[in-house]
Amino acid sequence: MNWQLLDPELLLPAFLAGLLVASTHVPLGRQVLQRGIIFLDLAVAQTAAMGLIAAYSFGWEPGGWQVQLIAVTAAVSASLLLHITEQRWGEIQEALIGTLFVLTSSGSILLLAANPHGGEHLKEMLVGQILWVDYQQLFPVALLYAVVLLLWYGLQQRSSSLLFYLLFAIAITASVQLIGVYLVFATLIMPALALRRAGRWGDGIGYLIAAFGYGLGLIAAALLDMPAGAMIVYTLAVTTLVAGWLVRKREHSFDS
Questions:
Q1: For residue 138, how many other CB atoms are within 10 A of its CB?
Q2: Residue 62 DSSP code
Q3: CB 141 within 8 A of CB 174
């Protein structure tokens, strides 16, 4: 174990990025689970990633407004398309979501085929580079998430399926660039799995799951000199299992 790698200057921005992502993904993930469209986030996240890859192929700088516009447009278009398919062909919605994911994944590979660093770029989109996040990246994302949360909780009583899909697309687009597709999926779905019967305190418990998952994952990755994104996926899974067991145990104690 390399204790010297436990550098707060390196780990703190990454931890804050995880907390920021969880702030929107915990409530949105519970909604995804409730709607039974588990792979929606993978499809939309991969569509946003394909938009980013397409923008990079034009030589535009990462983080530039052109890149953000293409990524958001791609994600919102995918969300609007899936909103329409949910209304018209709800019985095959999961199959359509899976088809979109395969198409956008294949599209990303085709776009990167002529790029000598294509494999590296694809890995960055999937696994993410959370340890390279800096405070300058976090500030605009925090403002964006604040607006998303304000609209989500403020309009929750009057929220529509369309609003959910639009907010979902916007949040996912920012998250993919911070932490990658795999961590986006893990943060959305894993805490939600432990909170199926958590009631009104579910979001708060979900935030705790995410905080412990990201914190333990970053520490373990630093000590073992392992990829942070992949390690966090596993620590999120462990904290989800523990939290789910505690929630069920509390329910049984009340029942008895």
A1: 18
A2: T
A3: yes
- The tokens of 190 are what? 């894993």
Q: Smallest Cα–Cα separation from 35: which of 76, 72, 80, 87?
A: 87
| pTM score over 0.90 | no
Q: Judge whether 195 and 29 are in contact, CB under 8 Å.
A: no
Please report which residue ranges of the chain form alpha helices under DSSP H.
8-35, 40-57, 65-88, 93-111, 118-127, 135-154, 161-179, 181-194, 202-224, 228-255
Which residues lie closer than 8 Å to 156 by C-beta, 6 or more apart? none
Tokens describing residue 166: 């639009």
Q: What are the tokens at 112?
A: 């990167």
Neighbour count for residue 114 (Cβ, 10 Å): 8
In order of 66, 163, 180, the CA distances from 224 in angstroms are 38, 42, 21
3-state secondary structure of 130: helix
- Using an 8 Å Cβ cutoff, are 205 and 195 in contact? yes
DSSP label at 89?
Answer: -
Give 125-172 pLDDT, tens digit per residue: 888 889 989 999 999 999 999 999 999 888 765 667 888 899 999 999
CA 75, 81, 84, 88 torsion: positive or negative?
negative
Length of the chain: 256
Query: Can you say whether the dihedral through the CA atoms of 234, 236, 241, 242 is positive or negative?
Result: positive
